[in-house]
Fold this protein.
Amino acid sequence: MSQPQIQIPLDLPNVRVENYQQTDKGLVITVVSTCTKAVCCQCGRTIDKFHGYGKAITLRHLPIFDRPVWIRIKPKRFQYPYCDKGPTHVPALRVV
Ligand SMILES: [Zn+2]
């Protein structure tokens, strides 16, 4: 008999639930970003060269039925080509 499935509204935009597991500290939900590009905050240029995932970060979410819930997110990284401001321009990228 398989475990009952639950649907949890995460209120997180642009993520897809990859899996979830019960741990000693609560329910840990692993999500991945569905964003496909990023925008340079300084020159506004759009970058869509996906460059793998960064180190996963774990965030506290609202408890469900008094159980702690943690969201584990693997941030997407994008490869940044040199833009108009030159090779020393290190952009802050906003994932969209
Ligand atoms: Zn830029």
